[in-house]
Specification:
95 residues, two-stranded antiparallel sheet, 38% strand, elongated
Length: 95
């Protein structure tokens, strides 16, 4: 019997997403305004088998710093590597 492990991306936290908008060195008020930064996560929602894995990617736009830190926000909800590879736990559930 195959058991699915539903996983919703909204429960993965991105921690330490430190993005610096920077101006071009000018002194106008426009140069000092923070630049809009967005992060897109793919896939947005998946179902993963118990003990299965799923790769996620983060695309950062609006900043030269594209680094992200992945974290599973639910205790017991599996683990995620620094590269975005999620490993589901042995217990089925919604995380």
């Amino acid at each position: 019997m195959r058991r699915w492990f539903p996983f919703t991306l909204g429960l993965i936290g991105l921690l330490g997403l430190m993005l610096c908008g920077g101006g071009s060195g000018g002194s106008s008020d426009e140069d000092k305004k923070p630049k809009p930064v967005s992060v897109a996560i793919s896939p947005a929602s998946v179902s993963v088998l118990v003990n299965g894995t799923q790769a996620f990617t983060a695309t950062v736009t609006g900043s030269s710093n594209t680094a992200v830190t992945w974290k599973v926000s639910e205790t017991g909800g599996g683990a995620v590597s620094a590269s975005g590879l999620y490993a589901a736990p042995a217990t089925a559930g919604t995380y």
